[in-house]
Amino acid sequence: MQRNRLHITLFVLLAVLSLVVAFGDLLLGTTSIPLSEVWAVLVGNSENANYIKIITELRLPKIIVALLSGMALSASGLQMQTMFRNPLAGPYVLGINSGASLGVALFTLALPMLGGLSGTMFMRLGITGVAWIGSAAVLMLVMALSRKIKSVSTILIIGMMLGSAISAIVGVLQYMGSEESLKTFVVWTMGSLSTVTMADIAIFAPIIIVGLVLGIVAIKSLNMLLLGEGYARTMGLNVRRSRTIIFLSTTLLAGTVTAFCGPIGFIGLAMPHLARMTFRTADHRVLMPATILWGALSMLLCCLVTDLVAHHSMILPVNTITALLGVPIIIFVVMRNRNRQ
Amino acid sequence: MIQLSNISLAFGERTLIAGATTRFECGEMVALLGRNGTGKSTLLRAIAKLGEVAQGDIMVDGKAISEIDIRSFARLVAFVNTERVDIDSMRAYDLVAIGRSPYTDWMGRLTNEDRAIIERAMQITGVDKLADRMVETLSDGECQRVMIARALAQDTPVILLDEPTAFLDLPNRYELCTLLGRLAHDEGKLIVFSTHELDIALTLADSIALVDTPRLVHLPTSEMIASGNLERLFNSEHISFDAATKAIKLR
After folding, report:
1. What does the pLDDT read at residue A150?
2. What are the structural domains of chain A?
C-alpha cells in the first residue's frame, strides 16, 4: 500500500512538472510575450493578432509535438527493452531511426533524381510512409537476428553496424542528390519540433495515440515476456501475437516521430531506466505510464532548452539536447549493471 | 495425469528417445535421470509444449497436449528451468504474481483471491519474507525458490522443473528437493524434475525415469536401484555406482 502511495505521488509530481514546463515553453521563444498576454490568448480574450498567431500556430503545435514525441519514443524504448530483454535496446541504438533515415533519404534524395512528384502534403505523407517502412524493415531484421543470436551485446553491435552501414548509404545518396533535395533532407536530419504544423498534428497525433494504445494493450504480455519467451508461453501467452502487437506499436511510435521530427536519440533508451529507478518497479502496469510521463517531461524540457537558446536568435537541433540529457543516464545505467555483475 | 504413448524425440537429426511409454500420476515426485545430452531437457520441454514431438502422443489429464489451447494448458502444467532471471527493479512478489497470468484479465490485475494464492505460494516455498526484495539482490537458492513460488502461483496440478538444483550448494539442493517432495505429497501435485544428483534423487523421489538412450525406463525408486540399470549407465573405468550408498564412487 505504501508503494501505491509512492507511485501516485510520483505520477502527480511528474504530471505537474510537465504542465509547468509546458507553460514555460509557451512563455519562451524568439519573441518575448508577457505572461498576462499568454494567459489572455489561452483563455481566448486577447486582442493582439500577432501574439495569437505566435502562440496558436507556433508554440502550441510545438508543445503538442514535444509532448507526443516524448511519450512515443519512451514507450517504444520500453517495449524494445522488454522484448529484447536488453537494457540498452532503444529505437536509436537498434538502428530503427537509421532505417527511417534511409527511407527518407531514398524518398527525398533519390526520388527527385528519377523525377518524382512534389507538393507539401505529398512530401509529408510520403516521408511518414517511407520512415515507417524503413524502421519496420530494420526492426524486422533485428528481430529475426535476435532469434538466432541470444547474446545481448552481439545484437547491439549488429544494430550499430546496421546503423553505420545505412548512414554510409545515406551519405552516398547525399553526395548524389541535388542541392535542393539535399537541403530538405539535411533539415529533416537535424530533428526539429518546430517544423510540424497544426495540419501535420492532425495526422501525427492519431497515429501516436494508436501506437500508445497498442503499447497499453501489450502491458500484460510485456510483464510475462520479462521472464523470457519460454516462460511466457508456458503461462499461456500467444507469443507470436504479442510480438506482432509490440512490433506494430514500436514501429508506429518510433517511425512516426522520426518521420515528422527527424532522428531524436536517447529519449527512448534513457526514459525507461529513469522510470525504473524512480518508481522501483518492473511491473509494466506502473512502468508503462511512468515511462510515458518521463518521456513527456523530458521532451518538454528539451523543448524549453531550445527556447532558452532561441532567445539569442538561434535554434539548436533538438537531438543535440536529447543526447546531452540522455547520455549521462545511459552511462550511469551501464556502470550500475557492471557493478552488479 | 501425464501419459506418454510411444513417443519419440529428436534433436536435429539425432534421435534421443524412441518409443517411450509411461504414466506419471499426481502426488508423485519423479526424478528424471540420464547422462548429459541424452534428452532430459528435450523431454521436459516437449511435455511443456515448448518443443516438438517427432512421433507419438503426450496426454495431460486425458487429452493430447496438441489439442489443448495454450491458455488452458497454462492452467495444467507449470515449468521452471535452470536459467537465472535477471530483471532490473523487479520485486520478488511481482515475479511470483506473474504466475497468475493465466487467470488474470487483459491488464493482469490481481484480485484478492490472486493475492491470497500468491502469498500462500510464497509461504510454502519459504520466500514470504523476501516479497519486497529486488530479484537481483537474491542468492541463487532464494531466486530458485521464488521461481518455484511463481510456478506454484500458477496453480497447476503438474510442475515440471529442468535441473532446479544446478547452481545450488549441497544444503540448498537437499532443501529444494525436500520442498519439491512436500509439494507432491502434501499438495498432491505431480512433480517431474531432471537432475544429475543421483543420491538426492534416489533418496527423495518416488519414482525414477531414466533416459537409457534411446529408451526411457520408468520404475519406482527401489526397483530402479535393484534393476542394475544405473550401474550399467553410470559405470566407467574411473567411477562406479554403489547401490548400497546410492552414490557414485571413484574406483
Report:
1. 67
2. 2-340 (1.10.3470.10)
